[in-house]
Design goal:
The chain is 50% helix and 13% strand. By secondary structure, it is of the alpha+beta class. The protein has a 4-stranded mixed sheet, sandwiched between helices. It is globular.
Length: 182
């Protein structure tokens, strides 16, 4: 199995066991089952290349309505959370500059994700920790339709944090470790 396939398999395992398994995203299961998620693996550690790859992902979604959402997964680059945050900031600038604001939205995941003001080992960080740095591209119109069906969508993040703390960090660490053996 090539490196790209291993990265995708690890990401899919994490999606199934964490994001879907703990229902951190109430919309993920449908798209996972429908196979409407585009997985793109980047081997780049260069911000400019990463932004071009993200732009290509926007364009791919533009012309493929059967793809609901996309994951740009960095197999080697942006391992330092600070570097990833810089990329994320530029990603949001690109979204606006290229006229995609209101069309797509970026969700962020990283192996060392740490919410501002939260201890690094706090279980709440696992709501956004993934096997690799990931930029998740969501269609805003689809997200709005899905959120309209949820009674209190604003409560999702707090509910996820509460659940992660109840479960404890160890369970999420095991899932991330197992993800690399898929």
């Amino acid at each position: 199995m090539n490196v790209g396939n291993k990265v995708i398999k690890a990401t899919q395992y994490w999606l199934e066991k964490t994001v879907i398994g703990f229902n951190f995203c109430p919309f993920a299961k449908r798209e996972f089952v429908r196979n409407s998620i585009a997985y793109e693996v980047s081997h780049s550690d260069n911000i400019e290349d990463a932004l071009y790859q993200l732009l290509a992902m926007f364009q791919k979604l533009d012309v493929n309505s059967n793809i609901e959402t996309g994951l740009l997964i960095f197999s080697e680059g942006f391992a330092k959370f600070e570097d990833y945050l810089e990329l994320l900031d530029l990603t949001n600038q690109l979204l606006e500059k290229e006229g995609y604001e209101g069309i797509y939205q970026i969700a962020s995941f990283h192996p060392n994700y740490c919410f501002d003001g939260v201890e690094e080992d706090d279980a709440s960080n696992y709501t956004n920790r993934s096997p690799y740095p990931i930029l998740h591209i969501l269609r805003e119109a689809s997200l709005e339709r899905a959120l309209a069906k949820i009674e209190d969508p604003e409560a999702i993040p707090e509910s996820n944090i509460r659940l992660a703390k109840e479960q404890g960090a160890a369970i999420f660490e095991r899932i991330l470790e197992k993800a690399f053996h898929q």
